[in-house]
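comment on this one:
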Amino acid sequence: MAEQKMLAIDLGASSGRGIVGSFNGQKLSLKENHRFSNDPVILNGRMYWDILRIFHEIKQSIAKTVLDGDAISSIGIDTWGVDYALLDESGKMLSNPYHYRDARTEGIVSYVGRFFNSSELYAKTGIQCMNFNTIFQLIADLRDDPKMVENAQRMLNVPDLLNYFLTGNMANEYTILSTGAFLDAEKRDYAKDIIAKAGIPQGLFGDIVAPGTSMGKLLAQVQSEVGKTDAEVLTVASHDTASAVIAVPTQEKEFLFISSGTWSLMGTELDAPKINAETEKYNFTNEGGVNNTIRFLKNIMGLWLIQESRRQWRREGKEYSFADLESLAKAAKPFRCFIDPDHPSFVAPGDLPARVREFCQKTGQYVPETVGEVMRCIYESLAMKYRYTAETIKKLTGISPRVIHVVGGGTKDGFLSQMTADACGIPVCAGPEEATAIGNLLVQLMAAGEAKNLLDARAIVAASFDCKHYIPENTPAWDAAYQTFCALN
């Protein structure tokens, strides 16, 4: 068969890239043609995404496919979850999309109590309560800028917004909507009673479309900028975690995954949502996946802890590569102190190492002094949190996974992958690194009829990409330290 080429635009919270996928009927290969940083903009005390620059960079990637002679048949965009733009009746943005770390939603959960309680929201949507859920952000808009909401005619999550910029057509894709806590998890449709109680205009929401839906060809204006292409823009599993989970290289029904990046999304895949008092107690989320699957998972503060620590040391004039930080962590003594990675004090940008020390001091532990000690504390705490989450998933679902699949950028961190295997007592399969882009491309292949279903897609991943395997070591020491970690949380 003729080789099929597609373009995946994969946007993370700190960087974006364009990746051309080539499929020869058996294997998928990748070629990165564009990479750029994704930097938030702080203006008048508010944090925004620089959406126009992001759109410019997407066009650069498409233009490079034309210049390189890559006859792509389709384009798909995936991004982080929850964030959105409001558009007026003429289709113009009323504001740049807010960044989910913007401070306007601090304390919003208690404010929302005047509309409905958290148990009512969870029972309907099955979404982990986090102050940046889309519904909470929309309520903050209603409270702080009611005129903007009054003038809005449509809400589009970031990937849907970018599809609209490219094609002029609007749609709300299922997997990205499912992150927002305003979908009925069972019905896979808008929770109209919740939306009404929040006072959010129902007209903001359009028809829900599945991954693999055609959004049409590029606008003439866009084509004049990027060059002539017949590529069709498709909705993919446009929430990046939904795309990443497609790329888990397994044929097993029961497995655990960690989509490892700025956040660590740890969970399993189910056929139906699991919503009850226990899942609410442990604050697990039920997000939509491709083919109507459910990603039953927990959001864990992942590599953000390392990334923001590195930024702080850079602000202090100390430059460390990620490899440097890993080496320093390896040299530090083990199991001296732990943090709860999901403690609220670690959410905001700033002096994260100082907050690590403060947490340890307040909890009566050894206070890490050196860079290596801080990093060791973060690494071990993440691995322990993964164990706690893995044990909770097994308790809530009854599954007996034989392996933890780590996918995404975090697979490059072999030290953390080995610690994950050690802490959890379960072998780890790390890879593929570009899982999100791969999942994006696999949906495009499914839309083209080249992959029939998820198992087909995952077989392509296993045939195309290598994984690294980590076997649990030093289990008794980790078991003993785990008791100390649990006592802190």
